[in-house]
Each structure stands twice: as structure tokens, then as C-alpha cells.
Amino acid sequence: MPRIFVASGVHLPGSAMNTASTFELRTLPQAPPAKPKPAPARDWTTLQIVFGCLLPAATILIEWTTGMCAESFFDPLPDWRFHLLAWCVPLANLLGLLKVNSPAFGLLNGAAILASIAYAAMFNVLLLPAAFAIPIGIGLLPWSTVFAAWVAIFQRIRLAGARPGPLGGLAFGLAVLAVTGGPLALTQYWLDRAARSEGPERERAIHALRQYGDEGLLRRACDRNGEWTPFFGPRPYMGEVRRIYYEATGKSYLEGPGPRDRWNSNRDWEWDEDLGGARTGRRLKGLRMSSSQFDVKTHRDSGTQYVEWTIEFSNATTQPKEARATMSLPEQGVVSRVTLWVNGEPQEAAFGTRSQTRAAYQSVVAARRDPLLVETAGPGRIRMQCFPVPAEGSMKIRLGITSPANGQLPELLDRNFALVSGSQPPVLTTAPPMAAWTPDPFDSRFAIVHRPLPEARAKNAVLVVDGSASMAPFARRIARPVGIPVIRTGEFRGGTDNVVALRKAHEQLAGVGGGTIVWLHGPQPVELTSAEGLRPLWERNPAGIKLYAAQLVPGPNVVLEKLDGIAAIESARTTAEAWPSLLDARTIIVRERTPVSKLDAELARKPAAPVDVARLWAFDEIRRLYREYRKQAAELAASYRLVTPVSGAVVLENSAQYKAFGLNPDKGLSPVPEPATWILFGTALVLLCVLRRRIRTS
Predict the structure, then answer these.
(1) Cβ distance 76 to 122 under 8 Å?
(2) pLDDT at 207
(3) Could you tell me which of 573, 556, 562, 572 has the C-alpha nearest to residue 538?
(4) Longest dimension (CA), the chain
(5) Which of 277, 365, 378, 412 is the most buried (most CB within 10 A)?
């Protein structure tokens, strides 16, 4: 019974356990009923890790290393600012995952929300096509921006007590977006305005780019042909963007680094878009001028000089490269010898028409062989290019230049290689022009005569000053004589159009019967107005207007390239202060071909001058024939072995290559013998004299 009572909850006192007379019933307290267990909370941690942290970080790394989107659509990470903005997203989501309730999370979360939404808006046109590529993984990359935005908003809701609050975080995010994307948006907006407008509206857009545009972003746009841009649509094509870049900055886009090939892991390799072309292009890494030597011989009896410039290029990379340069010649100078060392032996160039020599050069470049090409690039300028400078090797060339003895050397204006350090040019001596004659190298019945004649001082003159940013250091140093009109193309900001100013100066002088234009300018890397419109003015040129183009800052000049071959246009060497000397009375040289029987008696008693006199006469004659008698001019240039507006010089590897293009390296005037050859001739002459004396003695 007690057991039954106990089991039923009745308590029996110890004394009554064994008696039936008295007992007390007590009810035992019952345990509270068990509460129902709540359903387990859904764990979103894995999804946050994958879609909020890992996927955005993987997307950034893939784009950074491969440039997949940049190569195909647009560049979402154009510079370091956008990298920081993008990395805010996985970092903020990671802090939220760790429940870091601090001001850092509140600020970064606001930036992450707006950054991910902004990137999702950029990729909006790619989201639908990418959805079909999700099964293979690639489609997740554009969608990572949407997933990251969801995770960032979800964490903001979960950590509602984080400080600063939502408004403070979003305000911080807006500030970050303005600092990061503001320059890009402004640059793209004003770039599109400049490309799609004309007149005053275009000028306002260019001015805004100078004030608010990002030069680095604008320069990178020069290498993106018709790229699609978020919110703005297709970007203008490269040619227009490059013109706008020059107008806004006054620089050539080639001055900056080229686009990086992120698909290539070889650091030495780089894409050379100008290989074999007619443009100098960007500096190539690892390519440099390892040595430079001038050998000068001045002939005082005739007032001429001959300069040999020996250059050696070295290539420190594992990729063969082409060396290219634009050079200014001494005033009235002409290239009369071109040599390339092939397998350690000097090989002389063949001279032919420009089309022949360039076609031969480009053909051999395509075959990765050893050519050297030299051609003119405007009045008083030449373009040199040689390929290949072998990987981890060198290439040696020599240029021979004939000119009046004016004490000038050729100079580099534009190049795609680094310069040698420590080389000192020789000190030159000048010699006044003298009346002289030399036998015609191809017909002994004739002689080439040149005579100095005084020229009167220019009566009328106009000074044209390039108002581009490159000329700003010379703004206060440019001398301005009283009575000479000055046309300035700008306020020394950005890049300006010099073609319009030159046309205006020509019209002014044509109205007063002729005169001289002095053009002080910097580089002209692009044509804002076609320079072809200037050619008819100087080709007809009934008033005999002369143009002296003095470039004070090295760089390319496409305007002068378009005026190649016009005798009335010359390149001048001067300074910002000394340019008025170009208007002083100058001594000009009159050269003519005449029968030997008609030589002046006094002149005939003089010893014959070097063949340089004949070369300079041929150069003058070629420029005279250039407009109407191109074929005769080209034949004369090939005979005298001169680089002129109608001819070029090319060195190929073997006779079969010369024959394929109708060239003959042995045809024409013989080049100047090597110094070693002169020594050999002298030694042989001494030996003959000694031998003859011994024979007489015996």
C-alpha cells in the first residue's frame, strides 16, 4: 500500500507507515509542463561567405589578372581608386559576417551597398546574357555585383544597431563614389560632348576637360577603339579621342605608357602597333641607343661638310624590336649614305623611289630579317627605322649627311628608344660658302658650280607662335621686334591648331607682295585641320613667300610631314630669342650644271671641290623637279644616292631581295670610302713611291 500511495503522489509519514489508525495524505508538487521547442533558425552564413565575400573577391582578382571585361566590353577597374572601391564590398561583407559592430562596419557597409549597386548598374546590359552562362561559371562574374548588394543590405538590416546608422553609411558611400567615379564620369561626359559638337560648344567641352578631366583616364581612352562605356554608350573612335587628348593636354598620347597585355605573362614582351609603319610610336622597354659617334669632315674651300653618324642600338629583352626615330638634319642638308652592319660586315643601301624602298622594307620586316629604311619626314627631317634589333643583342647603322658647313649636327626629334648617356658631340667649325666647282660624276663634259650670292633682308615678315602648352616655357623669351605682326594660336594651354594660323599668315603676305613667315612651334602630333590645304598655297606661291619652321621642343610634327618636298619651306635651327636673325640678309648658294668649256677662268684655276658640291646641286634640282617631274627627280636621286621627298634608302640582306623589288645597291654614285680604305690607299701609294725610287736608283 505505501508503495501505491507513493506512486500515486500520497505521502505517508514515517510513524504511520506501519499503522492503519492514523495517516496524512499530502499531494506532491508537479513539474511545470515542458515548453515546445522553437524551430531552428535558418543559417545564412554559408551564403554570405560565398556570395558576399568569396565571389566578389574572385571577380576582382580575375578581372585584375586577365582583363576579361576590359578587353571585351569596358574597363571596370581603370585605376587604383576603383580597385579600392571594389575591395570595399567583400571587406564590408566580411566585417558584417563577423558581426563587428563598429563605426568601421557602418561606413564600409554604406560604401559597399552603393558600390555594388553602381557596378550592377554598369553591368546591367550583361546580366541577362550572363544568366545563361551561370551553369558554366562565367555568368556568375557579372551577377556577383547583384549578389554582393543583397548580402550588404541583408547585413545592414541584421545589424540595425550599428553606428553610424544607415543614413550616415550611405552618405559616406556617396562621398566615396563621388571621389572615385566623379573624375571618370566628368571625363567621359566632356569627352563625348567634345566629340559630338562643333564650334563654341566644342571649345567649352575642351576647356572643361582641361579643368576637370582626368588626364590618365583620357590617355587610356586613346587606346580603346569605340569602346562601350556604362551610362554613356559607345566611346568616340581612337582617332577623334587622340585629337581631343592633344587639344586638352597639348601632349601626344604616345608619351604615356601603352596598354598592358594582361594575357601575356612575359614581362619583356610588348605589342608594337607601329612595327614597320611610318610612325615613331611609343618608347619600347629594353631598347636603347648604346653608342653614338659623329665623324665630321669640313671642306673650307667649298664651304661644305660631310657628317657620318654611327649609331648602335641594344636590346635587353627577349623579344626582337624595331628602332625608329625622326631626326632633323643640318640646314639644307641631305642624307647621302646609309649603311647597316649585317653579320659584322657593313652593307651599303640601295636607293630607289619611296614606294619601292618602303615596300621592300615592310616585306623583309614581315619575314623577320635585317632591313634598314631611311626616308624624309618633312623639310629638313628624315625618318629612320631598322629591324630587328635582336633579342639581347645589338644592331649598328651609319648615316652620311652632306650639308653646307654651318656647324650643325643632326638631332633626334622623336624616338622609341632610350638615349645613351655620357656621349659628347664634337665641336664643329663653320666655313663661309665659297665659289667652287666639281666635275659632274656622270658626265665629264659638265661641271657643277656653286656660287654664294647675298640675299636682301626680308621686307615683310609674320611671326607665327604655337600657343600649345609645350611652348609655355618660351612664352616670355620669344623676341618680338617692332613692326612685325604676330599670330599666336592660343594661350599656351593644351594643344592648338597651327594650320589655320599658317594659312592666315600666308594670306597676309600674299596681299602685300610676299615676304617671310617664321613659325616657332612645339610638337604637332595630330592634325586638327588637314595640312593638305597648305600645299597648294606654297606650290603655286606666286609671291615667293618663304616659311622657316623652327621647332623648339622635340616631338613629332605631322603638319611638316604633309609639306615635304616644297622648296620654299625649310626647317631652321634657332632659339626663342634669336629667331629674328632668320630675317636678316642671308647668303644663298646658287648651284648650276654647266659645260666645262664655259667655266669662269678664275674659277677653273681652283682645284676641284669634293663631290659634296654635286650632291647639294642634285638635291636642289630634285626639289625643283618634285612637283611636275617626279620620275626624273627619282632617277636623279637614285643616281646620286640621296634620300629626298621622292626617294628612300633601304638595306636588305641579299641580292635576291634587292632584285625582287627592282633595287640595285651598286647603282649610282659610289659612297665615301671607309677610313680604313683611305689608309689602305695611302699605304699603297707610299709603297709605290718607294718602289719607284728604288728602281730609279738601281
Answers:
(1) yes
(2) 92
(3) 562
(4) 180
(5) 378
For the record, the C-alpha cell of 360 comes out as 621592300
Sheet holding 446-454, edge to edge: 436-439, 446-454, 587-595
On whether the CB atoms of residues 288 and 418 are closer than 8 A, the answer is yes
* Residue labelled with grid coordinates 579643368: 211
Indicate if the pLDDT at residue 8 is higher than 60: no
Confidence of residue 5 (pLDDT cuts 50, 70, 90): very low
Strands 546-551 and 569-571: parallel
Choose the most confident range, by mean pLDDT, from 21-30, 35-44, 264-273: 264-273
Q: How many Cβ atoms are within 10 Å of 611's Cβ, its own excluded?
A: 21
Structure confidence at residue 33 (pLDDT): 62
- Joined together, the cell numbers standing for residue 396 give 649598328
Mean pLDDT is lowest, of 223-227, 402-406, 663-667, for 223-227
Are 388 and 368 within 8 A, CB to CB? yes
Q: Across 101-110, 262-271, 498-507, 657-666, which has the greatest mean pLDDT?
A: 498-507
Q: Cα dihedral sign for 107, 111, 117, 123?
A: negative
**Structure confidence at residue 502 (pLDDT):** 95
Task: Report d(CA 429, CA 124) in Å as an integer.
Answer: 70
Is 274 exposed, middle or buried (CB count within 10 Å of its CB: 0-12, 13-18, 19+)? Answer: middle
Q: Stretch 592-610: mean pLDDT, rounded?
A: 87
- Nearest Cα neighbor of 545 from 505, 575, 580, 579 is 505
Beta strands of 245-369 (E only): which ranges? 287-299, 304-315, 321-328, 334-342, 345-348, 350-353
Q: By C-alpha distance, which of 209, 101, 111 is closest to 162?
A: 101
Q: Which three cell numbers stand for residue 177?
A: 563614389
User: Which grid cell sits at 97?
Assistant: 559576417
